[in-house]
């Protein structure tokens, strides 16, 4: 190819010399036409990349171009996400889902520190778990953390006790000095009680927390629990987006599966399931008020909360203008999910001196809680049975 270029330039040089001589008119035009076409050919040749540098194959030029390309690549590789301003990183992390935050936290120590901060996980905690996590669940979480730390300390002490059985004392001292840092890391990680740790413990189902379940065991055919709410320990199943519940019962423990979100709520009062709730709303009860009342089959069983509406006395006509039921010491409680002939349809309590009332056949009624929130009332109504119960 080099020979071809030298020949071409030699030909052009000779041709240019011939232009100095006088030629006939047609010959001059033919020479000019030839030069123009030849220059077009060279321009087309070079435009296709077949330039002199590639044909000459100069090693010095290639190495210079290659070094420039490598420098550009190195500069591009130096760009990192950590070079972004902190405010920009915060905006990015706030838009990530929990799985994205976990993936980012596994990249490096710097991102782990940023992606595990409480203010990022607090938003996800409120969005998904705020309706179910109450003060009782928070206390249970603190006990769970304390128990986990205690187990970690016992495990570390057991390992240290086993090390004393090693005959070689120097080997023991070396292992202890080497393992001190690892033990501190395990202790710190086990003591971690951040919001991220709490969120992941809930999502994984490892943490069972107190909640209340509406219409327990109705899916198993127990229609007698319609419009009731019982205390339980629940655990989340992320594969089905449902819950498992363990009920405190007399005898064997009952476990229910596949509980939907709309059948759960956080405990509304701090009264344990076996303790009578102190009623503070008896003087405020009047006809058409909505309420929840404790009921249990016998003293060996826990209380459940049952939904009802305050009714009118038999002596009252039911007219709002002439009703004086709110001034009477007797309060009529109606459970309209049952038929009028059912023994569960109605009960009567004393407003002034209400304690647990009932018998072995019909069970016992306990404390009363008046419902003031429209949201709570609408939740109970959404669980109303499709047909009246006997």
Q: What would you say this structure looks like, in words?
A:
- The chain is α+β, with helices and mostly antiparallel strands.
- Strands 1, 2, 3, 4, 5, 6, 7, 8, 9, 10 and 11 form an eleven-stranded antiparallel sheet that branches.
- 44% of the residues lie in helices and 17% in strands.
- The chain is built from twelve helices and eleven strands.
- Strand 6 (290-296) and strand 7 (304-311) form a beta hairpin.
- Helix 6 (98-105) packs antiparallel against helix 7.
Report the sheet-strand fraction: 15-25%
Radius of gyration: 42 Å
The low-confidence parts are 1-7, 9-30, 41-62, 163-192
Average pLDDT reading: 76
The description of the largest β-sheet is: 11 strands, antiparallel
- Shape estimate: elongated
- The proportion of residues forming helix, as a percent range, comes to 40-55%
Return the structural class. alpha+beta
SS summary, helix count: 12
Order of helices and strands: HHHHHHHHHHHEEEEEEEEEEEH
List the helices and strands and how they pair.
Layout (H helix, E strand, L loop, with lengths): L1 H17 L6 H23 L4 H5 L2 H19 L8 H9 L3 H8 L3 H7 L2 H12 L5 H29 L5 H22 L4 H10 L4 E6 L13 E10 L4 E6 L6 E6 L4 E2 L24 E7 L7 E8 L18 E5 L11 E5 L6 E3 L3 E8 L3 H9 L8
Antiparallel strand pairs: 1-2, 1-5, 2-3, 2-7, 3-4, 6-7, 6-11, 7-8, 8-9, 10-11
Q: What's the short story on this structure?
A:
The protein is of the alpha+beta class.
């Amino acid at each position: 190819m080099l020979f071809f270029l030298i020949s071409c330039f030699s030909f052009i040089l000779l041709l240019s010399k011939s232009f100095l001589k006088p030629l006939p008119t047609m010959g001059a035009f033919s020479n000019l036409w030839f030069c123009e076409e030849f220059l077009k050919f060279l321009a087309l040749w070079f435009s296709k990349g077949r330039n002199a540098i590639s044909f000459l194959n100069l090693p010095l030029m290639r190495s210079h171009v290659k070094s420039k390309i490598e420098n550009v690549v190195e500069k591009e590789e130096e760009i990192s996400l950590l070079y972004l301003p902190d405010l920009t990183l915060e905006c990015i992390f706030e838009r990530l889902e929990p799985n994205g935050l976990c993936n980012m936290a596994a990249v490096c120590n710097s991102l782990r520190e940023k992606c595990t901060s409480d203010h990022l996980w607090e938003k996800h905690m409120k969005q998904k778990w705020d309706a179910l996590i109450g003060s009782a669940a928070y206390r249970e979480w603190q006990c769970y953390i304390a128990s986990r730390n205690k187990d970690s300390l016992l495990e570390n002490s057991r390992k240290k006790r086993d090390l004393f059985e090693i005959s070689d004392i120097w080997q023991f001292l070396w292992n202890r000095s080497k393992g001190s840092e690892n033990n501190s890391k395990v202790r710190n990680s086990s003591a971690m009680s951040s919001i991220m740790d709490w969120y992941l413990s809930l999502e994984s189902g490892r943490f069972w927390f107190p909640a209340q379940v509406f219409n327990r065991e109705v899916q198993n055919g127990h229609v007698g629990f319609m419009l009731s709410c019982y205390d339980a320990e629940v655990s989340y199943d992320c594969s089905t987006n449902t819950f498992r519940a363990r009920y405190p019962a007399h005898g064997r423990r009952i476990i229910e599966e596949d509980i939907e979100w709309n059948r759960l709520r956080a405990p509304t009062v701090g009264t344990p399931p076996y303790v009578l709730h102190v009623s503070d709303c008896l003087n405020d009860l009047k006809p058409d008020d909505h309420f929840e009342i404790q009921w249990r089959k016998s003293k060996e069983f826990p209380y459940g909360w049952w939904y009802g509406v305050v009714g009118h006395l038999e002596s009252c006509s039911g007219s709002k203008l002439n009703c004086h039921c709110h001034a009477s010491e007797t309060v009529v409680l109606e459970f309209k999910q049952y038929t009028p002939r059912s023994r569960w349809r109605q009960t009567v309590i004393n407003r002034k001196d209400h304690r647990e009332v009932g018998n072995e056949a019909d069970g016992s009624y306990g404390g009363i809680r008046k419902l003031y929130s429209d949201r709570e009332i609408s939740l109970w109504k959404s669980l109303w049975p499709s047909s009246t119960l006997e």
